[in-house]
Design brief:
There is one protein chain. The protein is built from 14 helices and five strands. The protein is an alpha/beta fold. Strands 2-3-1-4-5 form a five-stranded parallel β-sheet, with helices on both faces. The longest helix has 21 residues. The radius of gyration is 21 Å and the shape is globular.
């Protein structure tokens, strides 16, 4: 499963590419990058909000590689973040960057993706959802994910969104659906190979603390001084604030039923395989770090925050301040 220590010298360690995957919680890792950047760490963080053209032709890939190279020549060290399927820089004559990724429970990804599409298509009308299926009627804008799946026969397995993003830009990764079993398996195998051999580290959102421990070991120039416990607590507070907002807003997202989750599991079996592989790989890499073993045990043994300590910690926390402001507005009937 590779080494626990710093990433391979074959990659260009002054350039890190964070390939974001939709609905996988990329903001959590970007928040860590932003906090660690600056004079002390000496790297520049660039977030690309380019239109979501995930599958790029050869010219599109070359343009992306050239953009990263141009940014890198002007900065001593660079972290480039973009929603993108894996791009092989070597194919375009460029030094290999250090790739970092983030995965999340595939069923949670699909549930959030449905409500993100519904809100975009029906409420915000953002440019990012214009190329997707549009609601046939206004009634479709009130459907929960259970309503949408209720009348559907069990769907066919697909290549999967997570699998496509880690698979990359080759024909097998961008094959049209419905894909045959052999095509789905080939895409999974390439995605798993890239995840194991092309990425310095792939974080798992549900195991954020463990993921940060690995990132600190694999990329010491970027995360060497990271306070993992503080970063983990920041992530947990932000996640709790986001969950509260989803449940309190007018566009509440009901939890998916067991029947819907079973259909989603069948449809996304490739992504579930890849997610489980990423979690096993994380375990394997962490087992190689003696000093990380001790720190993981210490973190697990930390007592939960007392209410008093939490109040002191939250006093200047922006997410908490925003939550309290939202509660006041809800109480006044503004939302």
């Amino acid at each position: 499963c590779g080494e626990c220590g710093p990433s391979s010298a074959a990659a260009r360690e002054d350039v890190v590419v964070f390939s974001r995957v939709p609905q996988c919680g990329a903001e959590a890792l970007e928040r860590v990058f932003r906090k660690e950047r600056g004079a002390a760490r000496g790297f520049y963080f660039h977030r690309s909000d380019a239109a979501a053209h995930h599958a790029l032709d050869f010219a599109g890939q070359k343009s992306l590689v050239d953009q990263v190279r141009s940014l890198a020549t002007r900065r001593r060290r660079l972290v480039y973040s973009r929603e993108m399927m894996y791009v092989d820089f070597g194919r375009h004559g460029a030094p290999l960057p250090v790739y970092v990724g983030l995965l999340r429970d595939p069923l949670a990804v699909q549930v959030d993706a449905y409500y993100a599409w519904r809100d975009c298509a029906c409420q915000t009308h953002g440019h990012e959802c214009r190329g997707y299926h549009q609601p046939a009627s206004a009634a479709a804008c009130t459907l929960s994910i259970d309503d949408a799946y209720a009348g559907r026969t069990p769907p066919r397995p697909s290549i999967g969104v997570l699998t496509r993003f880690f698979c990359g830009q080759t024909a097998i990764c961008t094959a049209a659906e419905p894909a045959e079993a052999a095509e789905r398996d080939a895409a999974y195998r390439r995605a798993a190979y890239n995840l194991r051999h092309r990425y310095a580290a792939v974080a798992v959102l549900e195991r954020f603390g463990d993921s940060l421990l690995l990132l600190r070991r694999r990329l010491p120039a970027y995360f060497g001084a990271l306070d993992v416990d503080a970063a983990r607590r920041d992530h947990e507070r932000a996640a709790a604030a986001a969950e509260w907002h989803r449940n309190a807003s007018a566009h509440r997202q009901p939890a998916a039923s067991r029947a819907t989750l079973q259909k989603l599991a069948l449809e996304n079996e490739n992504d579930i395989r890849l997610y489980r592989y990423a979690s096993r790989l994380l375990d394997c890499q962490l087992r190689r770090c003696d000093e990380v073993k001790a720190e993981r045990a210490a973190l697990a043994a930390l007592p939960p925050e007392t209410p008093r300590k939490r109040r002191r910690r939250d006093k200047f926390d922006l997410a908490t301040i925003a939550n309290k402001a939202a509660e006041r507005l809800l109480g006044r009937g503004i939302f």
